[in-house]
Design brief:
The protein is globular. Helix 6 runs antiparallel to helix 8. It has helices at about 20-25, 70-75, 110-120, 140-145, 170-175, 190-200, 235-240, 250-255, 260-270, and strands at about 1-10, 15-20, 35, 45-50, 50-55, 60-65, 80, 85-90, 100-105, 125-135, 150-155, 165, 180-185, 205-210, 225-230, 230-235, 240-245. The chain is of the alpha/beta class. The protein contains nine helices and 17 strands. The chain binds flavin-adenine dinucleotide and FE2/S2 (inorganic) cluster. Flavin-adenine dinucleotide binds near residues 46, 48 and 62. FE2/S2 (inorganic) cluster (FES) binds near residues 215, 216, 219 and 234.
């Protein structure tokens, strides 16, 4: 059981929850995730740990409502309980002094990129952050990301805030401008695919955090298998972070669509349509 102790609407369809989870807060590191189940009928939802406080035993999750389970989660209020919460899962991000690092967060990916950028900054890296969303109402944590960055660039697809366009445009300009030691990108698979394509000609090591469908999170069910460098990897135990230049993004995107009909039916049943 984990109790929600704070709820905040961050952006359209995007909510933040602070959860009382002292054991997870004690040992989690940037890049790791939890799997939770709201109630006995609930499916298991993987969510990145967007922040944590070891002193008061709190972890923060940021959830975008996309289907039945995430809508149901978004309806929880302060004081409500989540039936089970396991974690920390997955390997932590590699946090070293690389030099200059570009952190790219797209949409809800802004949440998981934040603790990574913060940890990299604490290690002495120069951080250039690029955050982007489809429109202004989907952007959040501008100030938080700014505080851990030496430079922050913001894009919106529709131009409703800051620069019009996608995150790969300023990314390419920076790569042309100066030597970059590492890029880390978290966001929709299509964004991560194009970040990888953008950095490849510059030969800059690029890390992405993959979000395949997951079930057990322990390497036993096989649901999260991905192809990386021609080898099958389980994102839950081998990842979720991988070398972007080796990931088969098209396969990842196809596999995310496998249960579209079932997911649509589940959401319609939940919404009483
Ligand atoms: C390691 C990991 C970390 C994640 N961290 C976060 C996070 O911090 N915040 C957050 O909002 N989401 C995160 N996700 C995605 C989140 O788990 C899914 O959005 C959620 O499980 C969808 O459940 P649902 O029942 O609401 O929607 P479903 O009905 O299952 O799906 C609705 C729609 O979302 C798409 N979808 C389903 N699963 C995923 C997925 N894993 N990734 C992307 N799209 C998906 C489907 O293709 C479908 O179009 C993470 C996923 C992984 C694997
Ligand atoms: S989620 Fe089951 S093997 Fe990764």
């Amino acid at each position: 059981m984990a109790r929600t102790i704070k709820k905040e609407q961050l952006a359209t369809n995007t909510k933040l929850f602070d959860l009382e989870a002292p054991l997870i807060a004690k040992k989690c590191l940037p890049g790791q995730f939890v799997i939770l189940r709201i109630d006995e009928q609930g499916e298991r939802i993987p969510l990145t740990i967007a922040d944590y406080n070891r002193e008061n035993g709190i972890i923060t999750i940021v959830v975008q409502e996309v289907g039945k389970s995430t809508y149901q989660l978004g309806k929880l209020e302060v004081g409500d309980e989540i039936l089970d919460l396991i974690g920390p899962l997955g390997n932590p991000s590699e946090i070293e002094n690389f030099g200059t690092v570009i952190c790219v967060g797209g949409g809800v990916g802004i949440a998981p990129i934040y603790p990574i950028a913060r940890a990299l900054k604490e290690k002495g890296n120069r951080i250039i952050s690029i955050i982007g969303a489809r429109s202004k109402d989907l952007l959040f944590w501008e100030q938080k990301v700014k505080e851990v960055s030496d430079e922050l660039l913001i894009t919106t697809d529709d131009g409703s805030y800051r620069r019009k366009g996608v995150v790969t445009e300023p990314l390419k300009e920076i790569l042309e401008r100066e030597k970059i030691d590492r890029v880390i990108a978290i966001g929709p698979p299509i964004m991560m695919k194009f970040v990888a394509k953008t950095t490849q000609p510059f030969k800059v090591k690029t890390i992405v955090s993959l979000n395949p469908i997951m079930v057990d999170g322990t390497g036993m069910c096989g649901a999260c298998r991905c192809s990386v460098g021609g080898k099958t990897k389980f994102a839950c135990v081998d990842g979720p972070e991988f070398d972007a230049h080796l990931v088969d993004f098209d396969l990842l995107m196809n596999r995310l669509k496998v249960y579209l009909d079932e997911e649509k039916n589940a959401l319609e049943r939940y919404q009483g349509k």
